[in-house]
Design goal:
Length: 650
């Protein structure tokens, strides 16, 4: 005997399991029934695809069709046939998390189908799949796998193992009445427990003649059933299964007590139960009631009634070839009651032959299971070997990754080296510019003094602007570039500085020969040229005010020094200040020439004690000190103010 599991969806699309005993039945049917089932599912699928059915309506309809053909009509599908029939059902069930009950229902159909075929391995496999679906949702049904195991043990006469399964869950099972009363568990879990207890545990205790355990377990079943009855008044399906298992328990106990009157009354109770719930599926009652009535009429030697029911079960399409042995046993017992011992022995011999066929089938199934186990074991070994290969590959990937990281780090160091080298080159260009300024000053006293001063200033301003542009481009590359084209960009930058140098040198020669044709740029314009290249308008707001009158009489040395100071200050702003606004003011005040350079950057209070970071400031102070001036620097997180005061020209 194997348990058949029924599944129904509630209005909230939550699925529940009903574990139902089907007695000594295994079902089969002709090819025409399979075709009818296929047509029915095709029609339902067309309704859904034409959008006349919602997901929930389709799933409910599919549940009814499946139970009708699989359980009521006794359809025996192959795995391929059932998979095809439930393909759309599976697609919908796996499309949304709210249909988790549908996924259990899907595997339940295969479990029941395996029960029909007496395929114990597949039966256990699908029971385990259902249990896994429970675990995925953080739920637990302790009876689905246990009930499947218990039925296999029952078929093999291993009643002690059934009892051992129960003992493992006994503490939990005894709390079920209270849990049901407090709504801590749902009704389907209670019905699952009734199935396991009535169809497995009670019968096992009866077979082992443990009278006390029979009555204790029966009493527990009645308590669970009582609580289920209270909570299931509005659900006929729940009520049917609950009352059915209550009667099953009473039937087993009456047989144990050998109370034939009680047995007859209970069998009548099954008939009344079928009438009471005639508007819903009651195939589970018919499937159990026929064998039980035959047993009763044979035991009471009611030949006519026994003959009628044996004929019914013989003509019943759901009685499969595997039950022929039982049918022959019924007929043999009937002939024995009639007094025809010869015919009885012949029928018993046929029953024995059928039993041998069943055993041979079980042997083949065991061989198949052993083959499957061996195949699974080989697959496991292959997987382990594959994992070993994957692990080796992973190690190589790690080695390659580390090597790649080392190479990237090396490239980064190379880039830093090249940047450092580029800085050195720019420093060399600055030195070259200084040399140009010196050369310019050496010729300033030749020819016309004033013209020569303007030429020197023009040469310095143009050269300084080019160098400032070079510096700004370099800093931009350092901050922004991760590109392999860095070398090309630096080369362009170097070419630009060389061009500036050559331009300055050519210009100096041109001015030397054609000095009278050049025009002097104002000091303010020179500063603007410098700042426009170094401080672009799209990034900085600049305010430059130079009082040219204050520069009248100021020597070329002083002008050049002021330009160098402004240039150094701008460089510091670009590199460190992160400023947005820059002010440069130059004016005369109380016989002093005042230069203010102001920015709204982050300041450099934290770098005051870092001599390397303060080289630019020290350079400014030295230049001012050389001109007998005073340098005042105020810095904070809100910005920096550099105030320089030098004696005005007299």
């Amino acid at each position: 005997m194997k348990l058949i599991f029924y599944l129904r969806k509630t209005l909230s699309v939550l699925a529940v399991f009903f574990v139902l005993a089907i007695g000594h039945i295994q079902l089969c049917f002709g090819q025409s029934l399979i075709q009818k089932a296929k047509k029915s599912f095709d029609s339902l699928n067309n309704e859904y695809h034409s959008r006349r059915l919602s997901d929930e309506e389709y799933l409910d309809g599919a549940d009814k069709l499946r139970d009708h053909y699989l359980l009521t009509k006794g359809a025996n599908f192959t795995t391929e046939q059932l998979t095809e029939l439930l393909s759309l059902y599976k697609k919908i069930g796996w499309s949304n998390k709210k249909y988790d009950g549908v996924r259990k229902n899907y595997y339940l159909a295969f479990l029941n189908n395996a029960a029909m075929f007496e395929q114990n391995g597949a039966y256990m496999y699908y029971a385990d799949k259902i249990a896994q679906e429970y675990k995925k949702n953080g739920e637990q049904d302790p009876f689905i796998v246990i009930s499947a195991k218990s039925q296999i043990y029952m078929e093999q006469g291993l009643h002690n193992k059934v009892i051992a399964l129960y003992v493992q869950q006994k503490t939990y099972v005894k709390t079920l009445p209270q849990l049901l009363r407090k709504n801590k568990i749902d009704v389907p879990t209670g019905i699952d427990a009734l199935t396991f207890l009535s169809a497995g545990v009670v019968e096992s205790y009866i077979k082992t003649n443990d009278t006390l355990a029979v009555y204790e377990t029966s009493e527990l079943i009645y308590e669970i059933g009582k609580e289920i009855r209270k909570r299931s008044q509005d659900n006929k399906q729940y009520m049917l299964y609950n009352e059915f298992f209550m009667l099953v328990t009473q039937h087993f106990v009456a047989l144990f007590e050998k109370d034939t009157i009680k047995v007859k009354n209970i069998l009548d109770g099954f008939t009344e139960l079928k009438i009471t719930y005639k508007d819903i599926e009651t195939g589970i009652i018919d499937q159990n009631l026929l064998p039980w009535k035959i047993d009763y009429f044979l035991a009471s030697k009611n030949i006519d009634s026994a003959s009628v029911y044996i004929k019914k079960i013989e003509n019943w399409h759901s009685f499969t070839k595997n039950q022929k042995a039982e049918l022959y046993q019924y007929k043999a017992k009937l002939q024995e009651i009639k007094g025809d011992i010869t015919e009885s022995n012949n029928l018993l011999y046929l029953a024995l032959l059928e039993e041998q066929k069943v055993k041979e089938k079980l042997k083949i199934e065991m061989d198949n299971l052993l083959y499957a186990f061996t195949e699974a074991e080989n697959t496991r070994i292959d997987l382990e070997q594959s994992e070993a290969v994957k692990e080796r590959r992973t190690r190589w990937l790690v080695v390659i990754s580390v090597s790649a990281a080392f190479i990237i780090f090396s490239i980064y160091l190379l880039m830093l080296y090249r940047n450092k080298k580029a800085k050195a080159q720019i420093e060399d260009l600055n030195n070259a510019a200084d040399m140009q300024i010196i050369a310019m000053e050496e010729t300033k006293y030749q020819a016309v003094r004033e013209e020569q001063q303007r030429l020197g200033q023009d040469l310095h301003d143009g050269l300084s602007s080019s160098i400032a542009a070079v510096r700004y481009q370099l800093e931009t590359l350092i901050m922004d570039t991760q590109d392999t084209e860095l070398k090309d960009k630096l080369s362009k930058l170097r070419n630009e500085t060389i061009t500036a140098y050559e331009a300055a040198r050519n210009k100096s020669h041109e001015w030397f020969n054609e000095g009278d044709e050049q025009q002097q740029l104002s000091f303010e314009k020179q500063i603007r040229i410098l700042t426009d290249k170094a401080l672009p308008d799209n990034i900085y707001q600049k305010n430059i005010h130079i009082d040219n009158n204050s520069l009248s009489g100021v020597s070329t040395d002083t002008r050049i020094a002021l330009l160098r100071i402004i240039q150094e200050s701008i460089t510091n702003i670009i590199k460190h200040a992160k400023a947005k606004n820059v002010d440069i003011l130059l004016y005369e005040e109380e016989e002093e020439l005042i230069l203010n350079i102001i920015d709204d950057g982050v300041g450099f209070e934290d770098k005051i004690h870092n001599k390397k970071s303060m080289l630019g400031v020290q350079s400014i102070k030295r230049r001012v000190q050389y001109m007998n001036g005073v340098t005042e620097i105020k810095t904070s997180v809100k910005g920096t103010v550099i105030r320089i005061a030098i004696p005005a020209a007299k």
